[in-house]
Amino acid sequence: MKIAVIGFGAAAIGLLERLKDSDHQIHVFEKSKDIFSSSISGIRADGKLFVSTEMGGDIYIDPLLQRRFVDYYINFTDGKQVEKGRSFASEAYYRKFYEKGFLPVSSDFFHIGTDQLKEVLCNIYDQFSRSKNITFHFSLEVTDLGVTSKGVLLNNSEEFDLAILAVGRSGHKLINKTISLYPELVKNNTKVDLGIRYELPNHIVDELNREMYEFKVKFKSRTGYMVRTFCNNPSGYVVTENYGDFTTVNGHAKMREKSSNTNFAILASLVLTEPFNDPIGYGSYIAKLSNLLAGEGKVILQTYSHFKESKRTKNLYRVHPTLEPEKFILGDINLAFPRRIIESIIDFIENLNAVVPGVANNDNLVYAPEIKFYSNRLNNQVLQQLKFIGDCSGATRSIIYATAHGYMLGEALLGGNFNIDI
Ligand SMILES: Cc1cc2nc3c(=O)[nH]c(=O)nc-3n(C[C@H](O)[C@H](O)[C@H](O)COP(=O)(O)OP(=O)(O)OC[C@H]3O[C@@H](n4cnc5c(N)ncnc54)[C@H](O)[C@@H]3O)c2cc1C
Predict the structure, then answer these.
(1) Which of 144, 229, 399, 401 has most ligand 1 atoms within 8 Å of CB, for mutation?
(2) Is residue 347's pLDDT more than 90?
(3) For the chain, which terminal residue's Cβ has fewer other Cβ atoms within 10 angstroms, N or C?
(4) Cis before residue 63, ω within 30 degrees of 0?
């Protein structure tokens, strides 16, 4: 079969790993200039790999398969340093959180580091480019696709028996266009996670960071919203993320360069109900409103006490932001966020303070907006000649889940199963 794979990120890697050296002729179309270009792939992001059945996506992925892909990525580091650990390995820690109403999320983690991921991706690409049935086409953005009687026509020029979309979040334009042509592909779309990035001195969370590199907990707040931590970065840096028409906040940790602060996201999960069906629009408007207050391309920074009291922050005290000064404005997040979200986050921080004293210190830092969008969950059983893998399918949200998802589709295709429900 002549197969088009659109996008070369984590999901495509899993798929190609299964289909390399098979009888299928595979053409990979990637919009980035080349493998060295800095924009290629969300996989470049932060390099934290998890093995967990409780996070990473909305489908079940066998932990053994997950672990296999962790080893796969680590093998491509050429033996460089990888941090390892387990969240809530200690029963005592698990209980400490549980007693205060938290739901601790267990996982094994491995951290490759942003700086090393670039090399990993190049090594993987090298391996695939030696496979005789795979051809890469860089600088080729697929902007248009149409299902025909025989297959799929890409960019109105070349026809394939099967097209597999692995475009991640950054491929939302192509996904939206495809959905508007074939609305029956959408299974559901109701969720968005809205919140803040929290930054505090390392010494407050030292014990926690020593115990587990990545602490993930969920908490049912008194507002009814489920609130969770996400992407903990000990000795890390807060950064901004540009979505084109708005800017959000994010965080990362580098393997070599360390700060004296820890940052993590605190997110409230909203599940919107019918007839409303545009959670991405809702989240984007809140982000834009925050940017309107902060100035274009900037995020709002506030101390925790002012966040609680709804007062604009004018000066900082002991905690120094790791985000570059030109990327934030001191302000009041309450002017942009709905009350129920603010209350959920405060409730979360106050309760966390009972487990980790100092977390609710007045001068800790709150950055907004931090938003996690969920892609529409797409149905791989509607069109035989069109499949979706990784984050663009709405089934995954992590490197390992996306890679495994791609691999699982590859496995199904090799077995002649074009109607797999994943
Ligand atoms: C800032 C940030 C930090 C993250 N940190 C982590 C982390 O530490 N651990 C973790 O597990 N996950 C992390 N993630 C999530 C992770 O990166 C994704 O879940 C994962 O990369 C999804 O894989 P994917 O193959 O679906 O998409 P991607 O890896 O994003 O790959 C999609 C590819 O498709 C290409 N593309 C898009 N549109 C087109 C088009 N129209 N034509 C041709 N090519 C196209 C893109 O250039 C890209 O190379 C992070 C994400 C972000 C944004």
Answers:
(1) 399
(2) yes
(3) N
(4) no
Domains of the chain: 2-77+113-188+376-414 (3.50.50.60), 191-373 (no CATH)
Q: Is 405 in the pocket of ligand 1 (CB under 6 A)?
A: no
Higher pLDDT, 388 or 54: 388
What pLDDT, on the 0 to 100 scale, is given for residue 37?
A: 76
| Residue 362 burial class via C-beta count within 10 angstroms: exposed 0-12, middle 13-18, buried 19 and up | middle
Contact 25, 1 (CB under 8 A): yes
CA of 64 to the centre of ligand 1 (A): 23
Name the residue at shortest CA distance from atom 45 of ligand 1. Answer: 7
Taking alpha carbons only, the member of 258, 216, 256 closest to residue 234 is 258
Lateral strand order in the sheet of 299-303: 102-104, 217-220, 226-233, 261-271, 191-201, 365-373, 299-303, 328-330
Residue 66 above 70 pLDDT?
yes
pLDDT over 90 percentage in the chain:
73
- Ligand 1 touching residue 167 (CB < 6 A): yes
pTM of this structure:
0.81
For 54, the token pair is 């409780």
Distance, CA of 160 to CA of 200 (rounded, Å): 52
Confidence of residue 39 (pLDDT cuts 50, 70, 90): low
